[in-house]
Amino acid sequence: GLDKFHQEVEFIKQLSNCPVPSIIAQGLIKSSPFYIMSYVKGKTFEQALFEDGLTISTYEAFTIIETLLLIVKQVHENQVVHRDLRIPNILIVNGQIHIIDFGLATKIDQEISILNIKNPKKIAHPISDLYAIGHFLLFLLYSTYNPTSKKSCSWQEELQLPLEQEQFIEQLLTIGQPFLSCDEALEHLYKIKQRIPI
To answer: Is 3 exposed, middle or buried (0-12, 13-18, 19+ CB in 10 A)?
Structure first.
């Protein structure tokens, strides 16, 4: 646990140019280590979606994902994978996206094989964050969804997205051929956005 604690501090320091909290101080209190982070004043997407009832258009959802992918690309360029990009850990701060909670972050394993991935959430590879971004995108798209039936259906059936949007999400979720990097995902996203009405 102590190693993970120190690793989180080092990762946050390493990512000082990214929109993440910064380390203000660190030390020991009666032999117990501590660190103090800057306070990021904003709302998590969990609060915005479920408490405030925020609704997001398809174009806005893909624009948010574009911004998030660009931030996560910076994180990956520092050889770090976050591994916990959930709606409570992504904040809206004055219209900008911030990421918090690097407690599950780890160094990217350059030797890892992505064949037969059993759990993309835990893998020490960019795929882990891309998988989480796929789920995050679904939360954004569901913000405008009104169910017409009590029957439980797949997200593909419920959202009825254009094929290229559906395939994009499936690649993020490692259904079929996954994206291996943020750059790959962004390349596809830019093409999709051109065809989404603003």
So the answer is: exposed
d(C-alpha 23, C-alpha 38), whole Å: 6
Contact 83, 104 (CB under 8 A): yes
142's enclosing H/E stretch is helix 126-142
- pTM recorded for the entire structure: 0.93
Tokens of 22: 């910064």
Q: How many CB atoms lie within 10 A of CB 88?
A: 12
How far apart, in whole angstroms, are the C-alpha atoms of residue 5 and residue 84?
16
Type of residue numbered 70: L
Q: Give the list of residues 6+ apart from residue 145 with CB closer than 8 angstroms, or none.
A: 158, 159
**Residue 99, CA atoms < 13 Å, CB-side half-sphere:** 32
Residue with tokens 């946050």: 12
pLDDT in tens, 57-66: 999 999 999 9
Burial class (CB in 10 A: 0-12, 13-18, 19+), 125: buried
Q: Whole-angstrom Cα distance, residue 41 to residue 37?
A: 12
What distance in Å separates the CA atoms of residue 87 and residue 110, rounded to the nearest whole number?
A: 28
Take residue 109 and report the two structure tokens written for it: 């394993």
For 142-154, the pLDDT digits (tens) are: 999 988 777 888 9
